[in-house]
């Protein structure tokens, strides 16, 4: 008799622990996976191309740390921008990226050979199923680079490692920038789909890697002397993507655990 009661108490403790795990689970799992840039749907009518558009107010932002690119050019390790705030949104047609970083001076003109422009760039792999080297891809694994300079120019480049950069004949990337209160805010966008050779398509069902670079012109930053991020990714792949889906899964798992435990307790009691 005493043994049976001990077994029943044991079973109740196990149930309580499992229930606690089922309740704590969703909170642990719904935290954003590392290095993810969430992509939120927005209405084209809200004009996300404008850096100050209200469309951006509800889009989650990720603070992306930057470090000096180990490019080997003179003073490569001497860079000034330490982080960039990144948001991403999509309409049915286009993917948008909004980058915002602190820079007290807007360097919009390179008037002498010793003056340089502020700039920013976004890098994505051509083949989105394989992660290329962060240093602008490799010959076997090319990257697209969207390159905005503060004189208003916006280029779309193809690179297979440092020194291999070529320009697409026609750029598909649009960039709009504003400088306010010591910060640049830049929105770059491009159609999601692409059937042009070597132009990344975002109409895929796998995660897509993305990396960022920023140059501060008044600190002599240009070319290989720049602040760069690690690889991040857009979560376009399958799998649990957010709390509602995960909560349902955890609730089902919790109920199943309780059911099994109750049946076990009943069996122990009958014995
Ligand atoms: C972290 C490792 C990286 C290394 C070692 C590196 C190295 C270099 C070097 C040596 C150059 C000068 C030669 C050239 O024009 O190709 C360069 C230029 C450039 N890099 Fe990178 N890079 C890195 C990451 C990135 C990233 C992540 C991006 C974009 C998000 C990027 C975008 C660019 C652009 C747009 C230029 C041309 C700038 C100009 O014309 O002045 N790089 N890089």
Structure notes:
This protein starts with a helix and ends with a helix. With 271 residues, it is an alpha+beta fold. The protein has two helices and 14 strands, in the order H-E-E-E-E-E-E-E-E-E-E-E-E-E-E-H. Helix 1 (2-29) runs antiparallel to helix 2 (243-270). It is elongated. A hairpin with a 2-residue loop joins strand 10 and strand 11 (183-191). It has two domains: 1-28 and 244-270; 40-234, Immunoglobulin-like, CATH 2.60.40.1190. The strands form two sheets. Strands 3, 6, 7, 8, 9, 12, 13 and 14 form an eight-stranded antiparallel beta sheet that branches. Protoporphyrin IX containing FE is lined by residues 69-71, 73, 121-123, 134-136, 145, 147, 157, 162-163, 165, 211-213, 222-224, 228.
Features:
2 helices, alpha+beta, elongated, 271 residues, Immunoglobulin-like
Biggest sheet statistics: 8 strands, antiparallel
- As an assembly, this protein is single chain
Q: Helix content range of the residues, please?
A: 10-25%
Mind telling me which CATH architecture of the largest domain this is?
Sandwich
Q: Which regions contain 5 or more consecutive residues with pLDDT less than 50?
A: 26-30
